[in-house]
């Protein structure tokens, strides 16, 4: 019996786990997932320092109009001066260490300097414009935990704490196999009846976008020998994705050969459209996704099934892309009993997200996939949707801008 969409996605996520870990240079770590706990090896800031360009002073000397004698200069990176005497001040730049006895900084704008003396304009309070040692993060504090996505902010933190290498979850190596006698590689001669193996490039792009490492196995022909040879190679990767050869045709041999090679089928056929013939299996712990060959079905089943699996394998704690709610701007009809993945155009109108079909939804129509910036998931138990109804949408804009 075919699986429901939710069953299929749950089965996949239950059967994949984060891969091992590796040490990676911080320069290469952005966008990946941390596999270690990081504690602060020192206080941040490391020492009391000035938040402004100005004068380090003793606040008790600083009644409005007071005149102080300038006795030194501390740039950022300078070493702290000896203690500042009463009624004296030291010129200090942002980041410069606060000298002993000083307890405030007066910004240049609030003072006037003439001939080695500074006259203060306004009021000065203790602690003004000082960034105190450890006020941001104290030594020993736990700052990052496994599962954290490394964005520029986390990279900044790790670099500040002097970490040139970090332990990350490994990126999966994903073998991609296209199957079909009708396929030729991009750039090869297109004789009558042939089409370009476009799915391989599209899947490789999708794998890269998620952060995996695609590996193209080329084309297996629709015979057992060719499939066997290529599938054996594919089963050496962390993940194997095949496209086509999984529906009911005479030459749809992929699942049979996978079974022969020790891949245990977890499900075949899902109550979704497009993508119904999708199969998922395991060889030990290695996941094998057999996606339907129609390019739109291949892309949508990657987005809804393979993407979350790869993210989980890379250590993401929330591998399912969050849905956004968007209101339909037109009626939609679908078949009962199947989830329909509707290719949609999402726009923002008066602050709300609104969606409409991107056009012809037949699986063979590629242009409406290209036009779409979202995939709406329409539930299996409904067949009519009216304008204004909210639906769940996965944005596929790349950078989630709408
Ligand atoms: N009698 C039935 N026929 C079909 C069924 C069914 O249940 N019963 N399911 C249909 C559905 S739904 C889909 S989806 C397709 C999927 O079939 P396959 O995964 O076995 O794929 P193929 O038939 O080999 O190819 C489908 C289509 O996609 C083109 N294709 C294949 N590989 C590539 C590639 N690498 N790059 C670009 N395009 C590719 C292929 O030429 C076909 O046009 O089956 C329906 N039929
Ligand atoms: O389910 Mo098929 O994937 O419509 O094209």
TrEMBL record:
InterPro entries in the cross-refs? MoaB/Mog-like_dom_sf (IPR036425), MoaB/Mog_dom (IPR001453), MoCF_biosynth_CS (IPR008284), MoeA-like (IPR038987), MoeA_C_domain_IV (IPR005111), MoeA_C_domain_IV_sf (IPR036688), MoeA_linker/N (IPR005110), MoeA_linker/N_sf (IPR036135)
List UniProt keywords, sorted A-Z. Magnesium, Metal-binding, Molybdenum, Molybdenum cofactor biosynthesis, Transferase
Q: Which cofactor does it need?
A: Mg(2+)
- Annotated pathway, please? Cofactor biosynthesis; molybdopterin biosynthesis
Task: Using the record, list the residue span of the signal peptide; answer none if the entry has no such feature.
Answer: none
Looking at the keywords, is Chaperone present? no
What PROSITE patterns does the entry give?
Answer: MOCF_BIOSYNTHESIS_2
Going by the record, the broad EC class of this enzyme is: transferase
Q: Which reaction does it catalyse?
A: adenylyl-molybdopterin + molybdate = Mo-molybdopterin + AMP + H(+)
Q: Which residues form the MoaB/Mog domain?
A: 175-312
Q: Which domain of life is it from?
A: Bacteria
Q: What is its EC number?
A: 2.10.1.1
Q: Which NCBIfam families does this UniProt record tie to the protein?
A: Glp_gephyrin, molyb_syn
Q: What does this protein do?
A: Catalyzes the insertion of molybdate into adenylated molybdopterin with the concomitant release of AMP.
Query: Record's family?
Result: Belongs to the MoeA family.
Name this polypeptide is given: Molybdopterin molybdenumtransferase
